[in-house]
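note to self — DONT lose this again. spent like an hour looking for the file last time. sequence + predicted structure for the chain T wanted, 280 res
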Amino acid sequence: MMLRAAVIQTNATGDIARNIDRASALIRQAAGEGASFIQTPEVTNMIPPTGDDLLRLIRDEDTDETLAAMRALAAELGVTLHIGSLALTSEDPARAANRGFIVGPDGGIRARYDKIHMFEADLGDKGKFREAARYRPGDRAVLAEAAGTQIGMGICYDMRFPGLFRDLAQAGAAILTAPSAFTVPTGKAHWHTLLRARAIENGCFMLAAAQWGEHGGRDESAMRESYGHSLIVDPWGKVLADAGEGEGVAMADLDLDLVTLCRARIGSLSQSRAYDVTNG
């Protein structure tokens, strides 16, 4: 089975209408070039200047402008749209939800996933990041049936936790996802390596649409600059598409039979053994 997939690379700010327009134009471009599965980056709807702005601007699912626009666009274009994530209200009034959606060609929501692992890092003069101060973590892994296959949903920092992706692959995922707003210093050091590793060790395609560029953040609770390089990686670890820098679209034809082939070549996915950890 072949699936033409696209990852779009955007530069979101606190201007929601602008972000919708830019993302929509890139989704239309991808669909026009034949993509039937299209993924957008983490926080597609907004990266506001401060954490306080985030809490002021977020909405719930029923009133979020971006979710409504993306659902309508998926139905108009007849594509499966993976909204990498949206910043939305949560049951915690002091923190947002970082929630991804898979939307079917009819515009219906097929799956939801709340980011489990919050980005907590101290990069010295490159900034301190405390995502948990503004976002509350999810607690449920999600495997979605969409676009004729099984898709394991992750978001950004999740990619540093291989157990999550192993669980999704063992549950049946052929495609793993990590839509992101990855920082520049960690992106230069780790982005390609982490995504290729998750693809190789699980014998899965890896799709990671990314934010790119400066976002105008004015405090440590807002992401200020993102690395870009949206990637599509095959189950053998080959990079099929890399969006590089700037806004744009990266596309690839996914031969889903390659998942079975790669897992037959190296069967580590089914060879895990129980063991104890001891001293000495």
